[in-house]
From TrEMBL:
Domain Exonuclease: 73-250
Molecular function in Gene Ontology: exonuclease activity; nucleic acid binding
UniProt entry keywords in alphabetical sequence: Exonuclease, Hydrolase, Nuclease, rRNA processing
Protein name (Swiss-Prot/TrEMBL): Exonuclease domain-containing protein
Role description: Exoribonuclease involved in ribosome biosynthesis. Involved in the processing of ITS1, the internal transcribed spacer localized between the 18S and 5.8S rRNAs.
GO biological process, one term: rRNA processing
SMART domains named among the record's database cross-references: EXOIII (SM00479)
GO cellular component: nucleus
Length: 268
């Protein structure tokens, strides 16, 4: 099925039908939306939807267009993943399912689900829905607001160029699902690698504490209990960083130009 981005752009030019609010209560009455729009897919089938506002109401993402005015010098991110089975390699690989970026104060800069163009020999798979790992089939449909991965990577790259430091928890896991170069101009910090927390809360043999464990003991917050949310995880990561910012900077400050090859990949 063809991606209806052209319809979304056209929707902004049509007469408004009503005043609406977004998922956080902010007015989006300036978005001009037709009552109905159609497009024809590659297979000749005609599709109908109610315009950009219906699509925005369908997506569970909270900020599908980046808010560059909210970027601070230190930002935090978290990814939820989808999987793809590569037949030539006979194994699964991780890809971006949802990416969330927040600023120093936890405000959402960018939050979006990503979809990939179909490729021969690659089959998308997701964990069972009952595991509540945060990405479902309906999230990856473009008609539900998912954006093409090339667009998502461009937005993430531009956000990274506006900040100085990006914080993550097991951030190597997040960075490796993006194309090379997206994070090349920004320094990184990893809350999972903070040595005092590894000693106290990490389990042998790797001593890589999970984000939910640190959030419970250090922030008194319970996360990932019902469903994984990359927004919630990114905010928790930023709070952890701020809790011991000076010590983390002292230990990880020299790390520049992306993730060092020596960074250990652990469970998030």
């Amino acid at each position: 099925m063809s991606h209806p981005l052209s319809i979304l752009r056209a929707a902004r030019m049509a007469p408004p039908e009503a005043t609406h609010t977004d998922m956080e209560g902010g007015s989006i009455s300036d978005i001009r939306v037709p009552r109905e729009a159609t497009w024809t897919g590659d297979e000749g089938k005609e599709y109908v939807h109610l315009g950009v506002l219906e699509i925005l109401s369908r997506t569970r993402a909270l900020q599908v267009e980046p808010r560059f005015e909210l970027v601070t010098s230190i930002i935090a991110l978290d990814c939820e993943i989808q999987k793809v089975y590569v037949e030539a390699l006979r194994k699964h690989q991780h890809r971006v399912g949802r990416i969330s970026i927040v600023n120093y104060f936890g405000q959402i800069i960018y939050d979006v689900f990503a979809y990939y163009d179909e490729e021969p020999g690659k089959i998308i798979s997701l964990p069972p829905a009952e595991l509540n790992l945060g990405v479902y089939w309906r999230d990856l449909w473009p008609e539900n607001g998912a954006r093409p991965m090339w667009e998502v990577e461009n937005n993430v790259r531009n956000i990274m160029r506006c900040a100085k430091i990006v914080v993550g928890h097991a951030i190597a896991n997040d960075i490796k699902v993006f194309s090379e170069g997206v994070f090349e101009r920004i320094a990184v910090r990893d809350t999972q690698l903070h040595e005092p927390w590894r000693k106290e809360y990490g389990k042998a043999p790797q001593h890589m504490p999970k984000l939910a464990v640190l959030a419970c003991y250090l922030l008194r917050k319970h996360i990932q209990s019902d469903e994984h949310s990359s927004v919630e995880d990114a905010r928790a990561t930023m709070l952890l960083f701020r809790k011991d910012e000076a010590a983390i900077e002292a230990a990880q400050g020299p790390r520049r130009n992306g993730v060092s090859m020596k960074v250990e990949v652990g469970p998030s």
